[in-house]
Amino acid sequence: MILSDRDMLERVATHSLLIDPFDPECVQPSTYDVRLGSQFRLFSSHDMTHIDLAQKRRVETQLVEVDELGFVLHPGEFALASTVERFRIPIDLAAKLEGKSSLGRLGLVVHATAGYIDPGFEGQITFEMSNVNVVPIVLRPGIKVAQICFFVMSSPVNRPYGTAGNRYQGQMGPTESRFWDSE
Asked: Which residues does dCTP bind (predicted)?
């Protein structure tokens, strides 16, 4: 079951779901619009020829802070970004992140594969952004780029996301891959 606008508002009011900062204008009938933060992480191709998943070499990214002029995502480029909002998902909910349809129709892909958020997660959500259009897209902090919906679990989970040393618990800002970190 997906939470309705009424249920989201009740959960936020009773503090069983944290969305900070919370904006009632972002509440949709079955989703909450999330906004783009001001930081981006970029991969540098000048010092690496490839990413080898078998090697225990962390892939470094460069953190870039942008102002209201925004960030230009060129065709074929990939960047990490994050939500303005910080979330705390209770153990009886899971969440799913999806790009906004209007932006997808312009060629903006907001997440490559990681759209699922487990019960117990706390932190900002990292976007895996790509431009599949043939022209650049300017991304300005604060724009609504995605939406999140919340699913009620059949029962509260036994092992919430944060209990097993999960790699991304508490993340703030765009967080690079922790693929090579042991759990």
From this structure: 100-105, 118, 147, 161, 171
